[in-house]
Every structure is written in C-alpha cells, then in structure tokens.
Design a protein that fits this description.
The chain has helices at 2-9, 19-29, 116-120, 137-142, 168-181, 202-211, 256-269, 285-288, 316-334, and strands spanning 34-37, 43-47, 57-62, 67-73, 79-84, 96-99, 102-107, 129-131, 149-152, 157-159, 162-165, 189-194, 215-223, 244-245, 274-275, 296-304, 312-315. A hairpin with a 5-residue loop joins strand 4 (67-73) and strand 5. The longest helix is centred in the last third of the chain and has 19 residues, at 316-334. By secondary structure, the chain is of the alpha+beta class. The protein folds into two domains: 2-65 and 166-334, Aminopeptidase; 68-152, Beta Barrel (Elongation Factor Tu (Ef-tu), domain 3), CATH 2.40.30.
C-alpha cells in the first residue's frame, strides 16, 4: 500500500491535468474491473461483486493536487504563475518546483534586503516568480511553458509510522480505492477517481451523475492541526487515532444514520475511528450528496498535517485502519 502511495505521489496531477495519475491508476486496476474515462477526465470503474446490491454504492477519491499554472514570462525570463487550489503563500517562498519536464525555484527577495514594512507585510503569491534558469524572455518562451503546470518537487519519505511528501491529498484515497478494486467484494461497487476537486468538486459532480448512486463514500485526507501552537479545541483530528468521520463541513451536512453506523461497525471490528471535530472545509461530498434526487453520503478522511504544502504528513496506522473499514462500510451500505 505505501509503495503504491509513493508511486502516486511522485506523479504530477494539478487540477485539470491529471493525465499521468489517471494512466497509472487505469493500468493498475484494468484487469480487476470495467473502467472508462468520461469527457471531463474522471476515471469510473465498476467492480463486479459476489452479489447484486440492493443499493448502488459509489466510492470516490480525487486524483488532482494543488499546484501552479504558468501564466506569463518577464523580460528577464522568470515565470509568472497562478495558484490552483488553496495554497498558503508562505509555503511557496524559495520552494523547488517541477514545471512540465523542467525544474525551477520560486524566488523571493532575501530577508536582509527587505525593509521593515516588507518584513511585516502578509505573504502573498502575487509578485512571486519561478526561476528556471532562462537567460532572457526569448529563451523562456522557446520552452513553451505558458499554460504548463508546476508541482512541488518533494521527496517522499517514511518516518517511522509516518509518511511525508506532496499530494497525499488525495493520492492516499486513490490508493485505498485501488486496493479495494484488487480484492473480491461481496457486492457490486462503483468507483470514481475524480478530477478537479481542488477547483471546486467539478469532477465529482459529473461522475455522480453518470453512476447515479444511492449511497456514496468520499475517501479523503483532512487537516489534522495536531501540532504545537494550535489550541486543543481547534485540533480537527489527531494522527494515529484512526480515520476521521465527518458530520458537517462547509459544503455538506452528512447522513446521520451512516455517521452513527460507521462508529458502530468500527467498534464491532476493533477499528479506531474519530469524529472530524470541525464544521469547516469541504470535499467531493458537496457535489455528490445533492446529485439528482439526493445521495446518502459518508466522508472518511485520513488525518494529514501540513495539507496543501510541499510535505504533508500522515500516519500509516490510520491508512491501515481505513483500509479495513472501507469494505465493511461499503458492504453495509450496499446490502
């Protein structure tokens, strides 16, 4: 499982440019299911189970990651960019990025050249530029990078029970769904590896319309905030305490019965779970649960520190717990 997550995280897949991720997933799962790509780019899979379900269940994870789009070139050959997804500008300063097949550094004015007002000014992506080593504008333009995407150039690391790297959101979810597809299931199941979640759940909207599920499970990562400096009451969830189960967020009020059932089934199976103790943020459930006549929806998330940065951090024990919980919940929702 962790090897697969590492392979997925190494791939570039900014929103709308998920091609490499989709190709990898399709190659891995094609022998275990029926699979198709819709016009928007979602990868939709049907897994034949031992029995026909009473309810059609969709499991969703998004393929895209936050990143940058190149928008222009300065006279000196530096690249202008726009962010795709919610990135804190502070994590961009001085970072190495991969721009298409090239590498660059997001330049920032050295602190010893800043005046006091510049040091106090809040961080902003506006004005930051990517230096790819071009000698001038003409050379940079010859590389045809306008419209290209850039991702953090981050090394995947294993730190005891933790893993760290870029795009854990939501390549962990993708890996979990791939694992389910590779195993026998008691009921027929549908899966969507969706696009453009970081730009507002666009892919999930069309995937849910195509599959037309009765119930859905959104498999995500979520901000843990269990770090020094964060008040205890603002800690959304804790690494190592199991998957986080959502009851409310900025886009979805989750099905109360499924929420309670999840905790009951987890307790019965000895699987650690925890409530997502915040009513903020959002994910693909926002689009899925209001599809057509409505879809009963559950969101299960891996706690992740430093989300949407160059190095997120997750706990392998939480991933193992969700790997055990997902088939249980999918079967209960389908029967």
């Amino acid at each position: 499982m962790i090897d697969r997550i590492e392979a997925l995280c190494a791939l570039p897949g900014v929103s709308g440019r998920e091609d490499a991720v989709r190709a990898f997933i399709e190659q891995e799962i094609a022998s275990h299911c029926e699979v198709k790509t819709d016009p928007l780019g979602n990868l939709i899979a049907f897994k034949k189970g031992a029995a026909r379900p009473r309810r059609r269940v969709l499991l969703d994870a998004h393929m895209d990651e936050v990143g940058l789009f190149i928008t222009g070139v300065t006279d000196s050959g530096l690249l202008r960019f726009a962010t795709a997804g919610g990135i804190d500008p502070k994590v961009l300063h001085g970072r190495r990025v991969k721009v298409g097949n090239r590498y660059g550094v997001i330049g920032v004015k050295p602190v010893h050249l800043m005046d006091e007002e510049e040091r106090r000014k809040p961080s902003s992506a506006a004005g930051l530029l990517i230096d790819i080593g071009a000698k001038d504008k003409e050379e940079a333009l010859n590389w045809n990078l306008i419209g290209e995407t850039a991702v953090f150039d981050s090394r995947f690391l294993r730190l005891g029970d933790k893993i760290t790297g870029k795009a854990l959101d939501d390549r962990i979810g993708c890996a979990l769904l791939m694992e389910m597809i590779g195993k026998e299931q008691p009921y027929d199941l549908w899966f969507s590896f969706s696009v453009q979640e970081e730009l507002g759940t666009r892919g999930a909207k069309t995937a849910a319309f195509s599959v037309d599920p009765d119930c859905a499970v959104v498999v995500e990562t979520t901000t843990a905030a269990d770090i020094p400096g964060v008040e205890e009451g603002k800690r959304v969830c804790l690494l190592g305490n199991g998957p986080a189960v959502s009851f409310l967020d900025g886009g979805t009020c989750y099905d109360r019965e499924l929420y309670s059932l999840c905790f009951a089934e987890a307790e019965k199976a000895g699987i650690p779970v925890q409530p997502k103790a915040a009513a903020t943020g959002g994910n693909n459930a926002q689009a899925i649960h209001v599809n057509k006549g409505g879809v009963r929806t559950l969101a299960l998330s891996i706690p992740c520190r430093y989300l949407h940065g160059p190095y997120g951090m997750a706990d392998v024990r939480d991933i193992a717990a969700l790997s055990s919980l997902l088939p249980v919940m999918a079967a209960r929702m389908a029967e």
